[in-house]
Amino acid sequence: MLGLPSCNEGVAEYVCVALANGEWHGNVVDPDSADNPVLALTAITDAAQETVTECLWQAWPVCDEHDHGMHPREAEGQLSWWCAGGNIRREPAHIRAVVGGLASLVRPRQPDRNRRDG
User: Fold this and answer.
1) Which domain of life is it from (predicted)?
2) Which residues does 70 contact at the CB level (< 8 Å), separation at least 6?
3) Are 26 and 42 in contact (CB under 8 A)?
4) What are the residue ranges spanned by the domains of the chain?
């Protein structure tokens, strides 16, 4: 992670997150983030998501239930990954996991398409 001064007057700075190969992208840091840890974590999470998304050219992270890209959002005082829900079945938006907690989720079982019944 790297903090860079902004080249635009009135904007505090940018936070950038780099991958192991050196590629990086970033986002503006909210000036109030020094006093609010959730805002600071949001800036870092947005920068990490921007870097991975730009390098992969696809949404990341993706909700396992709905196959939609998720976005960081504060929920109950914690920064969490928010999913807009399902479009077809009109399933509601939901919080999928706290930021940093995706690896601990139990993934839904996918059908075995190679299995032959009968």
Assistant:
1) Bacteria
2) 61, 62, 63, 81, 82, 83, 96
3) no
4) 1-57, 61-109
Q: What is the rounded distance in angstroms from the CA atom of residue 61 to the CA atom of residue 45?
A: 11
List CB contacts of 23: < 8 A, sequence separation 6 or more. Answer: 51, 54, 55
User: Structure tokens of 8?
Assistant: 């635009």
Q: Which residues contact 9 (CB under 8 A, 6 or more apart)?
A: none
Q: Give the model confidence (pLDDT) of 16-61 as tens digits.
A: 777 788 777 777 677 777 788 888 888 888 888 888 888 888 999 9
> What is the greatest pairwise CA distance in the chain?
69
In the numeric block, the tokens 């919080």 are attached to 95
The pLDDT value recorded for residue 72 is 92
Whose CA is closest to 69, among 79, 58, 80? Answer: 58
